[in-house]
């Protein structure tokens, strides 16, 4: 537990390292927290915990936001599908829960999204979804074994060069973010568990 000087109450810990207060972060980070509060109704714990190093947090968020939240080459649901598969494989509690919520909020049925989070092979996936998951799994688990031939299965389900590049980038981003989250014990916000159900 940590002490919240604004409320005087003990708050559950969600990082192994100290979490800065709004007064301790750069103004640009405080604005991002405020925007998240307005849009989501809460500030994601990952925003607070990573803001310990403000500039690095903002650089991470800029790339993460571009890959996951902006118009891309893959539909949002496919990007979130990959996020959940990678996070599940890495046993990253924060990302599996938060992006499981995001996957449900893209319109995927909760039972299917939950199956993806546990074992994507037992989820009722289309051929294209399964190809995305298989590629993300191989790149996550055995990256040294990737070869050009791995692209064949992606092309067979309709992915072009831009979609493949984005798939690789999203997979890479979640391997990075999973490691940061797991290394520092990030705990997902309670709001994620019920979102999209």
From TrEMBL:
Annotated Pfam families: CMD
Keyword Oxidoreductase included in the entry's annotation: yes
Carboxymuconolactone decarboxylase-like domain residues: 56-137
Source domain of life: Bacteria
InterPro entries referenced in this protein's UniProt entry, alphabetically: AhpD-like, AhpD_core, CMD-like, Uncharacterised_peroxidase-rel
Gene Ontology terms for molecular function: peroxiredoxin activity
Keyword Oxidoreductase: yes
Assigned keywords, A-Z: Oxidoreductase, Peroxidase
Ranges in coiled-coil conformation: none
UniProt xrefs under PANTHER family: CARBOXYMUCONOLACTONE DECARBOXYLASE-LIKE DOMAIN-CONTAINING PROTEIN, SI:CH211-175M2.5
Protein name stated in the entry: Alkylhydroperoxidase
